[in-house]
């Protein structure tokens, strides 16, 4: 298996590990998103200076406005963070 294939499997598994703990099994609610970010991307939350910034960030993930984050919206988050890492780690 290639590194990219492996990375995609890990992304899918990570989403599934957090989704559905409190709500729908294929969606992340606000609490699940917060837990995922705290455990998987802790520096992202540490950079936020106040809780309002975190709430705005979480709302920005919810592209369809259903108050949940689906897998596509999660992948957009991952892509955003990957772009930041790519451009600022040069």
From TrEMBL:
A GO cellular component annotation in the UniProt record: extracellular exosome
One Gene Ontology molecular-function label: calcium-dependent protein binding
Pfam family name, one: S_100
PROSITE patterns: EF_HAND_2, S100_CABP
UniProt record, GO biological process: endothelial cell migration
Residues in EF-hand domain copies: 49-84
InterPro entries given in the database record: EF-hand-dom_pair, EF_hand_dom, S-100_dom, S100/CaBP7/8-like_CS, S100_Ca-bd_sub
Entry keywords, A to Z: Calcium, Metal-binding, Repeat
Protein name per Swiss-Prot or TrEMBL: Protein S100-P-like
Top-level taxonomy: Eukaryota, Metazoa, Chordata, Craniata, Vertebrata
Gene label: LOC114450670
């Amino acid at each position: 298996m290639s590194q990219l294939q492996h990375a995609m499997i890990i992304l899918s598994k990570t989403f599934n590990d957090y989704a559905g703990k409190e709500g729908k099994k294929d969606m992340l609610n606000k609490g699940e998103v917060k837990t995922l970010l705290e455990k998987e991307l802790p520096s992202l939350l540490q950079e936020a200076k106040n809780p309002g910034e975190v709430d705005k960030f979480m709302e920005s993930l919810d592209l369809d406005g259903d108050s949940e984050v689906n897998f596509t919206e999660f992948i957009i988050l991952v892509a955003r963070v990957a772009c930041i890492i790519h451009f600022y780690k040069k």
